[in-house]
Amino acid sequence: MNLTNLFSKINKNIIIVVLIVLIATFSIISIKLYTLLYTIHPPEPVKPPDYHFYLVAQNSVDPFWKEVYLGASDSAKENNVALEFKAPRFNDSNEQINYMEIAIISDVDGIATYVPYDERFVDLIDKADSKGIPVVTVDNDAYKSNRKSFIGTNSFVLGEEAGKIMVDATGGKANIAVIMSNDVQKDTAYHNLKLNGFLNAIKNYPEMQITDISISKMGIMSAEDITQSILNSDKTIDAIYCMDSVDTVGAAQVVVDLNKVGNIKIVGYGDAPEIIRYIEKSIIYGTVISDPYKMGYESIEALLEIKRNGNSSTFIDTGVKTITKESIKRYKEALEKLEQ
């Protein structure tokens, strides 16, 4: 071995030793610094949640309920609340009843729930109340129950505002088809507050009448099938009123597919992005909206007020807004301000 190779080998060994020493030194210093910082600023112990609340929604596919959950989640995070969210995929009162029973058995601290049109649900609300579990209702009320508070909008006013939009859309002359969600059966349809509000808005227009009421099984495909059936029937239909956002989108898609844009006026519910785009394109004439985010947020706030102070307002109104092509610019500007 010549001297050059020998020195090269020695240099490599020296470099390796130096690197090992540096790594070891760095590790020792890091450990000492961590120990020092831990001593000066020990990590705060994880605080257990103050309350465990349970949110039962109507379904998990409607963007409306996703917004409700978002609002509820934000309030829960701000107030150190553990929040469980449960919902059937599509409207199903039996599943909602199961979730309520689970919440009661689990002895949660509070329940926020949508109320389906099912008398058994009122009994469950009263059962929860008897066990000391406060219940607040969201979007749909059970005023004859022992619920503590209702968070939402006046359903009659929602329907009335939709009726006013329909009058504008049709000039006061229309044969209207109504698509309702499947938790309202046909024999009780006219007892629905939204429908009664709608009827009240058009009652002074003798050339406006409801000629068909259909029940959607919840889902865009269901609404599409219903709309196609309505428009292909012998009935002369020139306007459609949809009571939830999923049915509104489904109906609009069929009107586009059948090339009936302009011939069929659609008034719907909700402000899902698809609905806003359809309004901008004059496929949907207008929509009424409540504030699902505020509903979710205020439902948790109401439960907190009940737990802390023993009571809450019996009705927390989250308001009603309307959107048409004429007002959509103002709607978007207001939305942008909220997101800033």
TrEMBL record:
<feature type="transmembrane region" description="Helical">
    <location>
        <begin position="14"/>
        <end position="37"/>
    </location>
</feature>
<keyword id="KW-0812">Transmembrane</keyword>
<dbReference type="InterPro" id="IPR028082">
    <property type="entry name" value="Peripla_BP_I"/>
</dbReference>
<feature type="domain" description="Periplasmic binding protein">
    <location>
        <begin position="53"/>
        <end position="306"/>
    </location>
</feature>
<keyword id="KW-0732">Signal</keyword>
<dbReference type="GO" id="GO:0030246">
    <property type="term" value="F:carbohydrate binding"/>
</dbReference>
<keyword id="KW-1133">Transmembrane helix</keyword>
<dbReference type="Pfam" id="PF13407">
    <property type="entry name" value="Peripla_BP_4"/>
</dbReference>
<protein>
    <submittedName>
        <fullName>Periplasmic binding protein/LacI transcriptional regulator</fullName>
    </submittedName>
</protein>
<dbReference type="GO" id="GO:0030313">
    <property type="term" value="C:cell envelope"/>
</dbReference>
<comment type="similarity">
    <text>Belongs to the bacterial solute-binding protein 2 family.</text>
</comment>
<keyword id="KW-0472">Membrane</keyword>
<dbReference type="InterPro" id="IPR025997">
    <property type="entry name" value="SBP_2_dom"/>
</dbReference>
